[in-house]
Amino acid sequence: MARSDSIVDLDEVTLTLAGPAGPVNVLRGVTLRIARGESVGLKGPSGAGKTSLMMIVAGLERATSGRVAVVGQDLAPLNEDARARFRRDHVGIVFQAFHLVPAMTALENVAIPLELAGRRDADRAARDMLGAVGLAARVDHYPSQLSGGEQQRVALARALAPGPDLVLADEPTGNLDTDTGRDVIELMFRLGAERGATLLLVTHDAALAARCGRIVAMADGRIA
Predict the structure, then answer these.
(1) Which partner from 1, 57, 77, 94 sits 20 to 30 angstroms from 186, CA to CA?
(2) Nearest Cα to 80, choosing from 59, 53, 52?
(3) Distance between CA atoms of 26 and 49, rounded to whole angstroms?
(4) How confident is the model over 106-127, as pLDDT tens digits?
């Protein structure tokens, strides 16, 4: 088990992927601990391994070696179905490209993880969450009818609605203008704090990094 005060516990994690010219060492012995309630920003140049590290923490990628424990759960022995259930119960993810379902309304997009978790109040909880991100009047709109900032608010609402222990965000302001990005940042930190979520963010956005309690710099697959 992970230490009781750690949400994320990584020990000597490596990731090696097959490349056209042979194996590529994406992560090279990463050790990282993130305490409950922390907000941590991952910074570094493209190719440093930031997104790959986040994918491993989410259980979307398997480490080649090393130990990965999240919310006290060792991820190594879990099969894909168990990892999906783990994410459903403990992890919310916000992507740069929003990843909303085009054929579903904002309400339906936010309700998806709640329905998968068997929540009988999925519709009401989704409406409440959309209200919390300022979109009470847009619940019946489809992604194509929303601005980029509104789509990212829906994505944030979807990530936070189930009450995850850990929220992972990969360049969440990357597709937004400065003012819209600032609004999304404020929402993410305020709502995350209200719900007791730990935040791990990949970002090149100086304003977003400045809001984090700790910055972890990566280079060449290592903690720099």
Answers:
(1) 57
(2) 59
(3) 6
(4) 999 999 999 998 999 999 999 9
